[in-house]
């Protein structure tokens, strides 16, 4: 921290900003990083130091930090019509155009699109859609929501309950009725001698047992990320979605793909649910939809679900739910341009072009003595640190190994994310192979230095 300068940006931050999801011990010891601007895949702090952001902000700044076309679209919309809502049947023309674009891009027969300001709000909205639909259809008991261990679906009370992370115990969550099925992480949870397909079949059997135990007519829906992102980039085991899909169909349980991270190209496909053949009824999108330049979440409803929800909403006079800034025209203009950039300026193509290099360097890092698994797809990846490659035993928690690696990398000008005992990477889609090499060169050096320190 720049403590020599009184009233420095760092000191002002420490006095004024309450950072969530921030290790406060590290913050107190190391100080915050105050950023002023970005250029390509780099961001710059108040002292002029530059950092490669190997996480695209929070997975979302996929076009880099100063894409002029998106900035221009934002400014043009600001001059034309900078703000409006989507209540009472009124909406900006730009938001209608975006909805048509999302319907066109969606991988299924889509009905309509509903807007929020974030991924959490979008998932939360779907929970209310499910509850209202079932209640109006004479099944008010159908309220239980299934997600999975290690899932991340957001931070509102409902979506934190859906998130399968231990830290939610701090809030006395999950609420009753939020159920967590198995995490499809074969490397961690596969049994001795069990093949990946057998693992997937076992998880599907467990899911069916859970549904039967709870009562199929009490389940409102199941949510799943194509690849669990904040869970540590958990790529689903082979055959996993193929195995669980028929069970959800059998019990008529709506299936929701949380594409907040995977949507719009992260896996190398436009949709993660296509990559893993999820065949969802609803898609939840956010993050890359505006390339990180504006807050937005979107619920894309499959036609059948949408028709059913419209019918009950008409019976109730309305779907009584909405966010003041949902469908804001600035966000819609930014999203329209961002999606055009991803599709037409070759960002999605670039993910596929450079993913080979990304995965090769990730696997090479995975050969490190203390790396248990290197996993990923497209431009998302993680390396899990272990005490012992064979037993997969984690290192003692007090070593805070992934935090140490991330903190040291930060000093070298690389932003990467510690998640549990994994280091997680998700660089912007504009990244070059040379920049991928830079990331991994720094990371390899950092990992060696940290293990030399730890002894
Ligand atoms: N769903 C997934 C898969 C996410 O990764 C996130 C955020 O990281 C969310 C939902 C919540 O989105 P937000 O932070 O915009 O509320």
TrEMBL record:
InterPro entries this protein is in?
Answer: Aminotrans_3, Aminotrans_3_PPA_site, PyrdxlP-dep_Trfase, PyrdxlP-dep_Trfase_major, PyrdxlP-dep_Trfase_small
Is Transferase one of the keywords UniProt gives this record?
A: yes
Instruction: Report the Gene3D superfamilies cross-referenced here.
Output: Aspartate Aminotransferase, domain 1, Type I PLP-dependent aspartate aminotransferase-like (Major domain)
Which UniProt keywords are present, listed alphabetically? Aminotransferase, Pyridoxal phosphate, Transferase
One term of GO molecular function: transaminase activity
Q: Which cofactor does it need?
A: pyridoxal 5'-phosphate
Among NCBIfam families, the record links this protein to: PRK06105.1
Report the sequence similarity comment from the record. Answer: Belongs to the class-III pyridoxal-phosphate-dependent aminotransferase family.
Protein name in UniProt: Aminotransferase
What's the source species for this entry? Albidovulum sediminis
